[in-house]
Amino acid sequence: MDNPEEKTTTALNPTEKKLQQSGIPDEASQAVEVGNRDLDDDIRSDNDIIPDDTWGNRWEFILANVGAAIGLGNFWRFPFLAFDYGGGAFFIPYIIALFTTGIPLTLLEMTLSQYCQQAMCRSFGNLNERFVGMGIAALWICFIIVTYYSVIIGWSNVYLIQSFYTPMPWSARGLPPSEMITVPSNYFYDDILHLNDAAVVELGEFVWFLFLGTFVVWAAVFLILFKGVAVVGKAVWFTVLLPVFTLVVLIIYGATLDGAGDGVVKYIGTWDMSVLENGQIWVDAFGQIFFSLGISTGIMSAFASHNGRQQNIVQDGIVVAMLNSSFSFVAGFAVFLVAGHFKYETGLTWDELQGVLGGPSLIFILYPSALSLTSGWWGNVMCILFFFTVFMLGIDSAFALTESIFGNLREVRLFDRLGPLPLLAFIVTACMALATLYCFGWGLYLLDVVDAYINIGLLAVGFTEAFVVGWVYKRNDAAEIVGSKSMLALELGCLGGFLAFATIGISVGNSTDLGLGYLALASILPALAIIAIGFVLCGTFSQVGFMKGIKTASYHGLGVLIFDLNEVLTRGTGKDNWKLPAIWGLALKFFVTPLVAFLLALKFNKFGIDSGYGGYIMGYQAFGIVVLLVCAALGFAGIVLPQIVTVEKKFPETSKRHPKQIVV
């Protein structure tokens, strides 16, 4: 006679086997079996959902995300950081940041939105309706960033037109070495930006040609977006691949110049490992990954919402992150080859060139000045090629940021009935109106301050993303399993450890120059000790056993989310798709969350020490603070009034799935 128990065991699905191994009662397994049948019905009915506005193919999606990521920051900030921190040594913290923070947050935004087929507001709202505020805050961040970003692209348009002049207004050819920086510098600040001391306290002169250059940017953005991702998907083959080609041309050209080898040595031939003891290099490396990938802007969410549900999104996210970093690395050669030549021609030292090796100064002073040294019309050709590349790099990011605004705004009740074309026209008009503020004499000052303050908003949204997924989602279900005392012990232990790390770390950073080793001993070790106590107490108080209690309290919500995402993203035609691994969720919870919180604390601490940002007068500081406060208010509005966003539920209900019974 057959053993009934044996038959039951052989019929178990993978989830039930996990439950049986975890020692959960049979009645719970039966409940999950019923729930899984319901879930299967949900998945079968949703698997073939294709958005109304979808990408033509997978590569269009990848190129659009790569184009959004490889903006001007990859060209003007990454090489400068490598220069500033001992050359190749900077790559070490940068690569660590890419894999521990950049890729996990990229995958979070992409997988959620592809699963839900919705932009950031609704995709996070699916986890909990009060999480919609993250999308609204991201909408505001994109609005602020794209307005001043479009003005920078407008500057490049002006330079592009003037590259046809002979001689070019910034030309350093024939000048004594002492004037090869001052002439193009004066031209940029005085003749282009109309920057002067009076502009610090006054509106300054309206610069009409900057306005026209910016208007061209917004006209291009509208033309690319007005037909949806069908046109975007075709445009990115040109706007992304052409800058890559022109960058290669610039590298080949730079390699032929005298002194170029010195630039390469400075970039990758110098490895000053002692800089790794400087805590700031780690902060800047993580910051570069965070901002370069466009995390917290909702761009990746907006683009992923136009995928079919079974696209290999985990692989796509990793490809995008790796291509972004690869472009940054290659762009460094384009910068340092030409910088080495300029150093050779001027006789200046690297220290003397430091002020123009990063930011707008690199693009609008050093690079065009160096290219202008080429004899004859060839200098004009190279400047035209360079500023066309700058325009293309910028326009990809500009329309990606605008698409994020568009996608999230459509999910807000106030705008959800407005047609796509009127909504896009409204967004473009509003952005152009705000961008006009930066076309006055005070433009660069205002841009600098707003950029500094809105970056705090980016970090805050990134922290919130990791926090709600790692610490809030299904928290009450986990507490019901292990007991409230056990759950609270883990939370307080981790919170205490994180606070100890941040508090001691910032204090040490402010008061000593003993480097990273002392920082580790002073802050990381005590933090780990406090966290370990929290884990021990969690297991001790657990009502389901020591190890099982720790496992459930620390991983339950993440386990449910990963299970749900993988069930849909890897079924049917996507059965060979890459899955989200458990380490992804653990990285979000125990690494990304405290790290981004620490970066936020450092930002606020620095602003407090400096009485604001950059020594600007109170009027500029107030403007930046208002921008940041609006971001915070919109985020909290989602918590208090979640009904302002219409959320279409995509995740299975707890009553069907019984996720509180799943212990991984």
TrEMBL record:
It is found in: Membrane. The keyword Chaperone does not apply. GO terms for cellular component: plasma membrane. Residues 1-27 are annotated as: Disordered. It is a multi-pass membrane protein. The keyword Membrane applies. SUPFAM superfamilies: SNF-like. GO terms for molecular function: symporter activity. The chain crosses the membrane at residues 61-78, 90-110, 131-155, 206-226, 235-255, 285-305, 317-342, 377-402, 423-446, 452-473, 485-506, 518-541, 581-602, 622-647. PROSITE patterns: NA_NEUROTRAN_SYMP_1, NA_NEUROTRAN_SYMP_3. Keywords: Membrane, Symport, Transmembrane, Transmembrane helix, Transport. One of its GO terms (biological process) is sodium ion transmembrane transport. Belongs to the sodium:neurotransmitter symporter (SNF) (TC 2.A.22) family. PANTHER family: BLOATED TUBULES, ISOFORM B-RELATED (PTHR11616:SF240), SODIUM/CHLORIDE DEPENDENT TRANSPORTER (PTHR11616). This is Transporter.
